[in-house]
Amino acid sequence: MRRSISLFSFILLGFSCGAQIQTAVQVSVDLSASEGKFTPIYSWFGYDESNYTTTKNGQALLRELHDLSPVPVNIRAHFLLASGDGKPELKWSSTNVYTEDAQGNPVYSWTILDQIFDAYAAAHVRPMVELGFMPKALSSRADPYHIPWPTKPGDVEGWSFPPKDYARWGELVYQVAAHMAQRYGTDVVSSWYWEVWNEPDIFYWHGTQEEYNKLYDFAAAGVKRAIPQARVGGPATTGPVPNGHSAQFLEAFLQHCAKDKSSATGRAIPLDFISFHVKGSPNIVVDHVQMGLNRELDSAATGFDIVRKFPQFEKLPIILSEADPEGCAACSSRKYPHNAYRNGTLYPSYTAVAMKGLFALQDRYQVNLISMLTWAFEFEDQPYFDGFRALSTNGVDKPVINFFRMAGLMTGSRVRVESNGAVPLDDIIKGGVRQQDDVDALATAADHEAAVMLWNYHDNDVPGPSAQIQLTVRDFPSAVHRVLMQHYRIDDTHSNAYTAWKQMGSPQNPAQEQYAQLQASGALQLEESPRWVDLDSGTVKLNFALPRQGVSLVRFSW
Predict the structure, then answer these.
(1) For 301-360, how does the pLDDT look when each residue is reduced to its tens digit (9 = 90+)?
(2) DSSP labels, 221-246
(3) Which of 38, 50, 124, 214 holds its CA 20 to 30 A away from the CA of 544?
(4) What are phi and psi of 292, to 5 degrees?
């Protein structure tokens, strides 16, 4: 039920014909009430087209991703082992790392793979090495090897099949890991996460569960032989639902690692982290997009519950190696209208709610969540704001990247937040945010700083009321009497190059001056100038309006 508003507030906030009435919401933050570490689960990104890594815009975006976070940024990409000429397409890349000569002997080529990983090193980001997909010379059903996107129902590609020789697969992985150790140093590559394959429960793997388990055994053995301290894991399955195929696959894989011996070594199977994916499910409802946040959080809860069935694994790091509003980054909203949320403020506000929900589920299930990896990067040589799930378009940042910049300004412990505008987590999991707006916050506190991220979110991409935030932050350190406040904002007029682009007339060939303006509009922007605020008995009180789908970060330092 939507909260009522008093006549006094109605008059105070003002009203004009056709205007939305602002809803008063009280948000209280207690800096002394820690609820656990603020793990930087936001600092993970990925994409299908690994060859975009070396493009001009790809390299620039990698540097931006490094700069938005004080902790290492991890990058995951598909097709690192696929055969081909290294030219990217939508949902396709290749490195040609493995071929065979006329006598059937392995031939390794590092040129393209080195270009990708050298770009990561130059940007000072950390690879999450996804070991996939099957080289043509190793595939047990090689032809047709690659079918350009979009594929048709029934199309099957050769890179998705098991190896015809598992020993050679294991040797390929060993050679890749040994080469990386030699090129970048054993200490460096030991800090990387090495993940075996991607979504083996669907069309990315045309083998059985048992064949995937064997693929994992040989890959893990190959990595460990080259880099004994490497962190190896999987299975990177799709979002689990109770009693569904994906859930059964994840559980069977964990059972294999817990009970079986490695088919590669005959010894215990190494498992240093567990990965699976969680996705929402947006739809078109009448004439607008309606997000499916409930599905993403329900999948996380199901996966965490499965991990808890294995006491020996319950403290292992969990990497949600894709955590997104839906599944296909390369499906533009021009062709797939339900993806129209991607250019504007609905994407960052959704991600804010999802992050808080994932932290809450981690606490509920007592698991070790370290990543909610955003499967979004950039798409080279595509129209401006074409509605791909991307962080930037032709070198212009989209609003969503500013959510990650905000998250990068948060550190320390998560602290208690109470909001009378929040939708309870279990209600979101059950039915999404379809009735009242979710007006809530996530807050952190460290030695000399604190931050409060606030949002006004609704699943439906339709106009709605602003929230009049009455923010109270209490229990600053007793020796502190004055703090510097910075208030960052994502909305239609802040940190939003998409709005600026539309105001220009949506140019596909912007002039130099327009392009510079778009780049400036895409940066994280302040809602007001920084200012000093005096504390009253260790407390700060602020009032401001937050539009629907808007996100604020209020940061204090002293």
Answers:
(1) 999 999 999 999 999 999 999 999 999 999 999 999 999 999 999 999 999 999 999 999
(2) HHHHHH-TT-EEEEEEE----TTSHH
(3) 38
(4) -120, 55
Cβ(45)–Cβ(75) below 8 Å: yes
Which residues lie below 8 Å from residue 246, measured CB to CB, with a gap of 6+?
A: 201, 202, 237, 238, 239, 240, 276
Q: Which CATH superfamily is domain 39-407 in?
A: Glycosidases (3.20.20.80)
**Which single residue is written with the structure tokens 């929230």?**
467
Crossing angle of helices 209-226 and 166-184, in 10° steps, is 30
Break the chain into its structural domains and give their ranges. Answer: 7-36+412-557, 39-407
List the Cα angle 30/374/323 in 5-degree steps.
80
Query: Options 2.40.10.340, 3.40.30.10, 1.20.1250.20, 2.60.40.1500; which CATH number does 7-36+412-557 get?
Result: 2.60.40.1500
Mean pLDDT of the chain: 95
Task: Tell me whether residue 326 is one of the annotated catalytic residues.
Answer: no
- H/E element, 212: helix 209-226
- The pTM assigned to this predicted structure is 0.95
Please check whether residue 105 is in contact with residue 91, taking contact to mean a CB–CB distance below 8 angstroms: no
